[in-house]
């Protein structure tokens, strides 16, 4: 556990990706099984101990620390596990830290009934840094910038194997990944992945910044506003995976049931409707899809009212043939041929936009807002299907955002590295004429869109313009105008304003603009396209 | 009936001693200022008369270039002020010359701690517990998560980093007044005899400490060094220089920062620190609460810092307390 705790701290204080990779790779190389596998799973968010949740930490601390002091401390530190590790009363005995696998073993045997008695025993064996590492490992909320992808890259670097091979063999493997280590470190045969419906890493796009591309080299498609999914069928089983590789098959049974060909397909999950792209577009708004997301069980009514389908973008594997090395144009042909055999209620192919040249495409994209389409995708016709975001192959060209001037109302401290900054902003529009005494109505919340320098400035502004405080939240004097950019706005019963913005971010700080000149709520309401 | 101590009035820009018309650590120019210590947020320039310890006045002279109106008062010496008020400067253990100020009037005793700490510091006189009716205490680290480890333990991290990285240097960010000299003195105490390289902004303050009898060993300016000579050495610089262009002249520095804030990981990350050193010149939570217990005042007034948690602790321990809202005290670099 000491080595793991030291690794965790070193990762916290290391900024450069290469230095992080080296730290991780060294650890993976030098640490024995199964500790290294458990550590890797913990770092890449793969461990789950049902009895230990962040509420467990709070409950544990409420027996030991005054609740007000706990809350003040937690708000300041910005992280429950770290706060608890610092506030935990020292046992007074010399630390006798468990190994990572010993800790994992004990954590996994804890139950809700005994966790309050068992977890303290482990904590008592550790110092503050060890307690931090244990609690992080137990609750799975690492937040230290180690993505699954970085973990796999470090793994590849540690044992000098190709990261694509690591990705390929990874899915379907369970911590502590002993077979995977045996393959990479000791040259054993890779884990068997034939005939299993495994997730394959997605190919992603870069934003197109102020550049033009030649349409003879690039094909254009609409960028549909749903969620990117991968539908996989192998060995008689079908799975639907989200972009992060989460299995969402149960949430969309109509899709899972519909695929009857062994294949790995990439597409956009959408709900039937006429919002995006009009009647011919055939897709409802993201809002409609959102009502289907995150459900463990789906009612018949839901299935009837909000039927889902997948608009296919690409084919990775079809009937055992791996197409990923082929150019996009060849894969596209294969996809179009395959689509004819699929259930048309559940699958269609994303249309290619015919445009003479880039200027013509730009004009089409301009008009896309009326059709509620997010933007355009540009894919190099000769691009292979590669995991991750590769420069020069795929671009997303979102339509320009909508803008509105809002007034800062509340600010909340961020978490993680922003824990000392007021970095989450709630802003509002005027509910009538501000000069006639109208109030502001909150319309949204944003925590990005500004630079680090601007964040410092904003933090200071909030501190100097506070009129009231509610725990980690400050109410400001409503004097600062933000130009807020957002992709779309929808009617919402959940918000007092009756509106919900999609993807709002701070576009500009308008310190020059008086608050009463900010927009009224009608201006925002007029942009609703539900 | 509780007394109201109306002869002393906390205002946003300082503590006003009404009958004497003096201000303690005022953040704007006044006719008569009583100053606890030399940090810029407590010792502003431009007052008519400035009463402080000789060390503090020397620091202020170095900072502001003048000692006009300076009135030195040694530790333990009592100054008669107008309006039947007397003031005594008592060591606070924060930095060289730092003092608590004991005010007496009409049989009532009020102690203003200024900034203080309770742990041993080779560069200044130790804090002395002074009984009083009202304790006006700082609370910079007034949250129970702040428990500073021993300075020895933190200093040993510098030394082991030097050993592990002979090709690099350890660049320690430390506040130019107090923290820098303490880190140097603690390194010497731990047996580190090599040259310690300093940023130009620290030179005068280090010399001032030496003039007051604090032995800092051999110090040299980074600007006089060849890059090669800095490998395997300790370099000390103000926090603002850590990620500044200045540090580019150093051989692949391990960036360290000596500050109580380093206890919280994300604070260290914000400062781009690789080697956080929890070394503070302020009392930690245990020292703050122990001081209230030791001094055992009738009332505790809490200022600059995280007042809410200290206030809560006082409530939980049945101690009368209130929070003062003083502005102008920000100690981000400690």
Descriptive labels:
heterodimer, A: 530 residues, alpha+beta, DNA ligase i, domain 1, D-amino Acid Aminotransferase, Chain A, domain 1, OB fold (Dihydrolipoamide Acetyltransferase, E2P), seven-stranded antiparallel beta sheet, six-stranded mixed beta sheet, 20 helices, 21 strands, 23% strand, globular, B: 334 residues, alpha/beta, Metallo-beta-lactamase, Chain A, Rossmann fold, 2 domains, seven-stranded mixed beta sheet, 19 strands, DNA replication (chain A)
Structure description:
The complex is a heterodimer of chains A (530) and B (334). Chain A has 530 residues and is α+β, with helices and mostly antiparallel strands. Chain A folds into three domains: 2-139, DNA ligase, ATP-dependent, N-terminal domain (DNA ligase i, domain 1); 203-398, D-amino Acid Aminotransferase, Chain A, domain 1 (2-Layer Sandwich), CATH 3.30.470.30; 402-525, Beta Barrel (OB fold (Dihydrolipoamide Acetyltransferase, E2P)), CATH 2.40.50.140. Chain A has 20 helices and 21 strands. In chain A, the strands form five sheets. In chain A, strands 13, 14, 15, 16, 17, 18 and 21 form a seven-stranded antiparallel beta sheet that branches. In chain A, strands 4, 5, 6, 7, 8 and 9 form a six-stranded mixed beta sheet that branches. In chain A, strand 4 (227-234) and strand 5 form a beta hairpin. The longest helix of chain A is centred in the first third of the chain and has 14 residues, at 17-30. Chain A starts with a helix and ends in a 5-residue tail after the last helix. The relative contact order of chain A is 0.09. Chain B is α/β, with parallel strands linked by helices and 334 residues long. Chain B has two domains: 8-145 and 282-323, 4-Layer Sandwich (Metallo-beta-lactamase, Chain A); 151-277, 3-Layer(aba) Sandwich (Rossmann fold). In chain B, 23% of the residues lie in helices and 25% in strands. Chain B has helices at 54-64, 151-164, 179-189, 203-211, 227-230, 265-270, 285-295, 307-316, and strands at 8-11, 14-17, 22-24, 32-34, 49-52, 70-72, 78-81, 85-91, 99-105, 108-112, 134-139, 170-173, 196-198, 219-221, 234-237, 254-258, 275-277, 299-305, 321-323. In chain B, a hairpin with a 4-residue loop joins strand 2 (14-17) and strand 3 (22-24).
């Amino acid at each position: 556990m000491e080595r793991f705790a030291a690794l965790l701290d070193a990762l916290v204080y290391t900024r450069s990706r290469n230095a992080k990779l080296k730290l991780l790779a060294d650890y993976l190389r030098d640490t024995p099984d199964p500790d290294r596998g458990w550590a890797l799973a913990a770092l890449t968010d793969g461990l789950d101990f049902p009895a230990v949740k962040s509420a467990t930490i709070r409950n544990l601390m409420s027996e030991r620390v005054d609740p007000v002091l706990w809350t003040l401390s937690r708000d300041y530190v910005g992280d429950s596990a770290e706060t608890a590790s610092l506030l935990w009363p020292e046992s007074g005995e010399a630390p006798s830290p468990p190994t990572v696998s010993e800790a994992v073993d004990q954590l996994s045997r804890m139950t809700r009934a005994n966790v309050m008695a068992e977890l303290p025993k482990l904590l008592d064996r550790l110092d503050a840094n060890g307690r931090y590492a244990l609690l992080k490992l137990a609750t799975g909320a690492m937040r230290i910038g180690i993505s699954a992808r970085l973990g796999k890259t470090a793994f590849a670097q540690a044992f000098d194997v190709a990261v694509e091979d690591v990705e390929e063999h990874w899915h379907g493997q369970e911590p502590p990944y002993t077979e995977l280590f045996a393959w990479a470190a000791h040259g054993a045969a890779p884990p068997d992945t034939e005939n299993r419906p495994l997730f394959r890493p997605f190919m992603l796009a870069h934003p197109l910044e102020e550049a033009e591309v030649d349409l003879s080299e690039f094909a254009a498609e609409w960028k549909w506003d749903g969620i990117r999914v991968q539908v996989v069928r192998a060995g008689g089983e079908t799975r639907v995976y989200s972009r992060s590789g989460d299995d969402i098959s149960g949430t969309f049974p109509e899709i899972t049931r519909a695929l009857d060909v062994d294949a790995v397909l990439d597409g956009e999950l959408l709900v039937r409707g006429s919002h995006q792209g009009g009647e011919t577009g055939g897709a409802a708004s993201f809002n409609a899809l959102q009502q289907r997301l995150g459900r463990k069980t789906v009612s018949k009514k839901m299935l009837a009212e909000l039927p889902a389908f997948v608009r296919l973008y690409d084919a990775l594997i079809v009937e055992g043939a791996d197409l990923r090395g082929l150019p996009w144009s060849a894969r596209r042909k294969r996809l179009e041929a395959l689509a004819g055999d699929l259930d048309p209620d559940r699958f269609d192919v994303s249309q290619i936009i015919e445009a003479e040249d880039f200027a013509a495409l730009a004009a089409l994209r301009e008009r896309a807002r009326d059709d509620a389409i997010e933007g355009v995708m540009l894919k190099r016709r000769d691009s292979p299907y590669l995991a991750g975001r590769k420069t020069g192959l795929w671009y997303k060209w979102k339509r320009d955002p909508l803008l509105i001037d809002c007034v800062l109302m509340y600010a909340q401290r961020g978490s993680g590295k922003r824990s000392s900054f007021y970095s989450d902003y709630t802003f509002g529009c005027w509910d009538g004429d501000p000069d006639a005494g109208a109030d502001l109505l909150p319309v949204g919340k944003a925590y990005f869109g500004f630079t680090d320098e601007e964040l410092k400035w904003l933090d200071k502004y909030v501190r100097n313009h506070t009129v009231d405080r509610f725990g980690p939240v400050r109410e400001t004097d409503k004097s600062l105008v933000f130009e807020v950019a957002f992709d779309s706005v929808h009617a919402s019963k959940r918000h007092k304003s009756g509106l919900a913005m999609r993807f709002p971010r701070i576009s500009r700080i308008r310190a020059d603009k008086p608050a009463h000149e900010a927009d009224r709520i009608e201006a925002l309401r007029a942009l609703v396209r539900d | 009936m509780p007394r109201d101590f109306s002869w002393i009035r906390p205002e946003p820009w300082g503590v006003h001693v009404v009958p004497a018309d003096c201000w303690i650590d005022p953040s704007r120019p006044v006719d008569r200022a009583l100053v606890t210590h030399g940090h810029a947020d407590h010792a502003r320039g431009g007052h008519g008369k400035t009463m402080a310890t000789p060390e503090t006045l020397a620091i202020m002279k170095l900072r502001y270039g003048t000692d006009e109106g300076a009135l030195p008062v040694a530790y333990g010496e009592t100054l008669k002020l107008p309006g039947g008020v007397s003031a005594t400067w008592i060591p606070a253990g924060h930095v060289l010359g730092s003092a608590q100020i004991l005010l007496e009037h009409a049989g009532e005793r009020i102690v203003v701690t200024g900034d203080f700490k309770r742990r041993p510091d080779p560069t200044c006189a130790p804090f002395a517990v002074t009984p009083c009716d009202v304790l006006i205490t700082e609370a910079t680290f007034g949250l129970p998560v702040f428990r500073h480890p021993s300075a020895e333990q933190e200093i040993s991290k510098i030394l082991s980093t030097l050993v592990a990285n002979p090709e690099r240097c350890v660049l320690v960010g430390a506040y130019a007044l107090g923290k820098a000299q303490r880190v140097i003195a603690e390194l010497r105490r731990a047996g580190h005899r090599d040259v310690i390289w300093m940023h130009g902004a620290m030179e005068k303050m280090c010399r001032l400490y030496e003039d007051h009898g604090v032995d800092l060993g051999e110090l040299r300016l980074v600007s006089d060094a060849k890059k090669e000579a800095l490998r395997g050495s300790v370099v000390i610089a103000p926090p603002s220089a850590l990620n500044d262009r200045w540090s580019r002249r150093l051989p692949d520095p391990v960036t360290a920062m000596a500050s109580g804030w380093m206890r919280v990981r994300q604070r260290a990350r914000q400062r781009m620190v690789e080697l956080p050193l929890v070394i503070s010149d302020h009392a930690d939570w245990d020292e703050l609460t122990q001081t209230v217990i030791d001094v055992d005042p009738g009332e505790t007034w809490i200022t600059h810092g995280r007042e809410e948690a200290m206030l809560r602790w006082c409530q939980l321990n049945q101690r009368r307390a209130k929070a003062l809202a003083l502005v102008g005290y920000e100690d981000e670099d400690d």
